[in-house]
Amino acid sequence: MKTRIFGALALAGALLFLAADSRAQTQTNVTATIVDPLGIPYAGGTYSIQLIPTGTGPTVNGQTIGGAFNGGLDASGSFHIALWPNADISPGGSQWQVTVCISPGVLPPLGTGAQCTPSIVVTVAGTNQDLSTVLNAVAPRLTVLSSAPPPTPTVIQSNSVTLTPAQIKNLVAAPQVLVPAAGAGKIIVPVFITGQMKFVSSGYGQATNVLGLEYTPGDVQISSVDISGANWADQAASTLGSNNGTLLLSLNPSQTSAVNHDVSIFNAGGTDWTLGDSPITFTVFYIILASV
Questions:
Q1: C-alpha to C-alpha distance for 165 and 33, rounded to whole angstroms
Q2: Is 7 helix (H, G, I), strand (E, B) or coil?
Q3: Can you give the pLDDT at residue 268?
């Protein structure tokens, strides 16, 4: 009876050991994004992965595994695949051989046509492994161009903010943000500004005092003359005003005062507009530059 009990316990222990050993052996998530020396992706290409040396009947934990895989790259030139770590594969001493191709590629005369990377040999290990660096180091050029394609042209953007009469009549003490900061290393450069007054019952007195743009925080003025309220914000009608082509960057603020700063509107005349009860929508047209 004791012999049977001990035998059953030994068998259970062996099974638990084997199960734990099996769970410990998991595949590695292998990824790569392949681009040529100019950064052009191998979009729509293919990959071929082969276990070497071949013909050895590879196994993991006694189970036969595949030793050859083929697949496609996505639009960014990327692929991902689960491979067994070489340390888990029997017989030992194996590695994975990886080759990436694209066909027809970029056709002549601007392109170099179909291309393949030289085969690289890697030892797969760990939970995740990125092969981008080693594959990109040997990826052939896809074009005959001497430089990367031209950058995307600078785009004029716009942002609109509607200010209440109370805000409009307090712009000396409390400037209002019209364009929020663009982020680290970015400068907002205003090009043009308009004001659209929706008339209620009264235009604004003191509207000859111009409104200015400034970078905030810091209150660094961008232009000496931006937008006057004369002949539109002082009228008894819904009207439209603008900076009338005045250069908005006329005061040449420093980059330090502009990087990652809001563009705000304030009363540059020193005396707030009065009397009016009509909201005004200000629209700023601008570009974004990287600081240098």
A1: 55
A2: helix
A3: 82
**Chain-centre distance for alpha carbon 56:** 45
Residue numbers in the chain where pLDDT is lower than 70: 1-24, 147-152, 207-208, 223-228, 244-252
Q: Cis omega before residue 109 (within 30°)?
A: yes
DSSP 89: S
Distance separating alpha carbons of residues 162 and 35, to the nearest angstrom:
46
pLDDT of residue 180: 96
Structural tokens at position 10:
């030994």
Could you give the angle at the alpha carbon of 53 between the alpha carbons of 47 and 62, nearest 5°? 100
Say if pTM beats, i.e. exceeds, 0.85. Answer: no
**Nearest alpha-carbon partner for 257 in 168, 193, 188, 207:** 188
Question: Of 232, 192, 225, 199, nearest to 211 (Cα)?
Answer: 225
Instruction: State the pLDDT at residue 1.
Output: 46
* Measured distance between the N- and C-terminal CA atoms of the chain, rounded to whole angstroms: 85
Exposure string for 107-122, b = 16+ CB within 10 A, e = fewer: eeeebbeebbbeebeb
Distance CA(183)–CA(201), nearest Å, equals: 40
Tokens 């700063």 — which residue?
Answer: 261
